[in-house]
Amino acid sequence: MSNFEAQLDEVLTREVPGLTQILAVERLSGGASQETYRLRVILHGEETLLALRRAPGGEFTEATPAHPGLAVEANLMRAAREVGVPEPEVHYVFQREDNLGDGFVMSWVRGEALGAKIVRAPEFATIRPKLARECGRILASIHAIDLDQYGLRSQLSEMSPSLFLDQMLERYDLLDSPQPMIDYAAEWLRDHLPEPSKLTLVHNDFRNGNFLLEPHGISAVLDWEVAHIGDPMRDLGWICTNSWTFGGDQPVGGFGALEDLFQGYEEVSGTPVDPEHVRYWQVFGSFWWAIGCLGMAEHYRTGPDKTVERPGIGRRSSECQIDCVNLLIPGAFNLLEPEPVDQADMPTVTELVTSVRDFLREDVMSQTQGRTQFLARVGGNSLDIVLRDLAVGARHRTEELDRLASLLDQSGSLESQRRTLSRRIRSREIALDSDALKFHLRQTVVNQVAIDQPRYSGLRQALASADGL
Fold first, then answer.
1. Which terminus of the chain has a smaller tally of CB atoms within 10 A, N or C?
2. What domains can be seen in the chain, in order of their start residue?
3. How many Å apart are CA 203 and CA 380, to the nearest integer?
4. Beta bridge partners of 92
5. Beta partners for 200?
6. Can you give the pTM of this predicted structure?
7. pLDDT at 31 over 60
8. Is 235 in contact with 204 (CB distance < 8 Å)?
9. What's the burial of 81, exposed, middle or buried (CB within 10 Å: 0-12/13-18/19+)?
10. Do residues 411 and 405 lie in contact, with contact meaning Cβ atoms separated by under 8 Å?
11. What pLDDT score was predicted for residue 418?
């Protein structure tokens, strides 16, 4: 038993009524921003499962406007459970003196969380046509939670749409990784800020992949870590953000229609849904997650959890950016084709990378399970990105630099030119309706996502849109 497991056993047997022993502790593969564990325990004389959610590396973290903390998350789950939202029972919230970091233990709820399975698995064929409506009903219940009754008004930050946008731009600027399409989306969002009729509790991460599903319906809503008080339509737009459709052909989580989502919401809330209001938050969702992905890469560089998963997620920023392209500036572009590989070296760099990728997928994955198997898959996917970059990346960046020199009428490194373009977009020195700007952004983002994830649905949508011109 590790020191962590021994300390966990000591704390939980002392603090959770009826818990007498921890039999096993297993870290799960899910949870990019927090650690998740499955605990096998003796509770009230019977063997059962519990779940543990903990800050990365067992850190103690200070609450921020963007992340109110795991103790508040536990309170949110308790409040939601009381008003009928499907939630696990929270058994214990860690205290500082427990020396386990921030986290809490809850009952284990069965259900499928993998978004791709929810979209495609045959066991969910009956519930899928009803699922968007159920999501709407659950969101309306969340938005109706009494903030004062559960002490949430003092625990959560209040963010109007304009404040939320400013907060994300501040976070983006601190990352110091200029991505002109992110700046373009930010300026569009600034020009189209909505006026919400009221501010409510916002889950802020309710989507396919963040709830557990059984064949009869949703069994638990997960991951409340970024909840705040704000525009409730943020939640409706987020579940319709393309990143969370997992290749499905329906706009709501890949499994449902907008009309069904809106109908379920209106049935419980009594409030009509404005589709354009929701569309604003779809754009914001892709903008938000584009920055979130960059943050994962930064966390890999500086944070305590330096797993192969974080830089892989960092490369997903281009997926979100192509979604912004599709929503805001669809149109023509040229998709670069790989050039023949020079076979002068033996073996080639491509062959070396391919051999390591295949080792991870064919040998490591077949001999491992759980999180190690998952990370081996992620590692293989990252090496696929390297292979595609070797094939076309240099030409992609050269052409991007040439376009930037023409657009900005100046020379410089690729990083400095990107930085200049981002600044000029934000200052409106370049108009958002500039055809040259829009073509450059489309061309750059399309070819970047073709390197990072050529099977992403947003790229297919961009190709279909261009073919239809």
1. C
2. 1-108 (3.30.200.20), 322-467 (no CATH)
3. 33
4. 105
5. 230
6. 0.88
7. no
8. yes
9. middle
10. yes
11. 98
